[in-house]
Amino acid sequence: MHHGGTLAVAALVSWLLTETLGAVMVRGWFTSGDARAALAARRAHPRQQASTEVMSVPVLAAHAGLNLAGLICWLCYLVSGARPLSWLALAFMAPAIGLGISTVTIWTPYPGGRPEQPRPPGVLPADELDRTLADEELSQQLVDSLLRHNLAERPRLSLRPLIPFGHGVLAIATFLLATLAVVAAL
Questions:
Q1: How far apart are alpha carbons 44 and 52 in whole angstroms?
Q2: Between vectors from CA 161 to CA 157 and to CA 166, what angle results, nearest 5°?
Q3: pLDDT, tens digit, for every residue of 74-101?
Q4: Which of 11, 26, 78, 80 has the maximal Cβ count within 10 Å?
Q5: What angle do CA 93, 170, 23 make, to 5 degrees?
């Protein structure tokens, strides 16, 4: 194996993990219906600038395409040892990361907005709350209702935000590992 071979293989593993998380995110985008909304908005107004609330299909396609091209160059570099391929892989990866960063603001929270939550029991408009607090019996009923609701509901921890976070951290790690591998191979 050439100099920097361990780093090059580590970069490949990191790259593959990054791509896997990216595929999970795209799958979630399609299954949530957000992809259909983005494509419909693009078809309805092809020349109009995309809304900041809809994922840009061209940006996402360019991000994925550049990453895939870089990955193919990296694999070819590992097989052949041709250093220009490693530099080409880095050249594809840099703008891909930039495009990926631009999607973060659109894709937060992942994979789109959370569904509307129903108003929990006991949440009252201000005037009704004032009337309830003025009456001792109604206040006690409100407290009892809130306690029942809060004790019955267990907080749900969602690990879903870790998917784009992990994707971004792995992308940066991949770029660093690949850059170090290329420099070590000089």
A1: 16
A2: 125
A3: 999 999 999 999 999 999 999 999 998 8
A4: 11
A5: 80
pTM of structure: 0.67
Q: Is the pLDDT of residue 49 over 70?
A: no
Q: Exposed (0-12), middle (13-18) or buried (19+): which is 58, by Cβ within 10 Å?
A: exposed
Write the CB contacts of 162 (distance below 8 Å, at least 6 apart in sequence).
Answer: none
Q: Is 149 left (phi over 0), alpha (psi -120 to 50) or beta?
A: alpha
Smallest CA-to-CA distance from 2 within 70, 77, 93 is with 77
Q: 52-74: per-residue pLDDT in tens?
A: 556 777 888 899 999 999 999 99
Contact of 80 with 53, CB cutoff 8 Å: no
Quote the tokens at residue 167: 């994707």
Calculate the alpha carbon distances from 131 to 141, 142, 148 in Å.
Answer: 13, 12, 21
Do residues 67 and 94 touch, judged by C-beta distance below 8 A?
no
Q: Which two tokens stand for residue 23?
A: 């595929």
5: helix, strand or coil:
helix
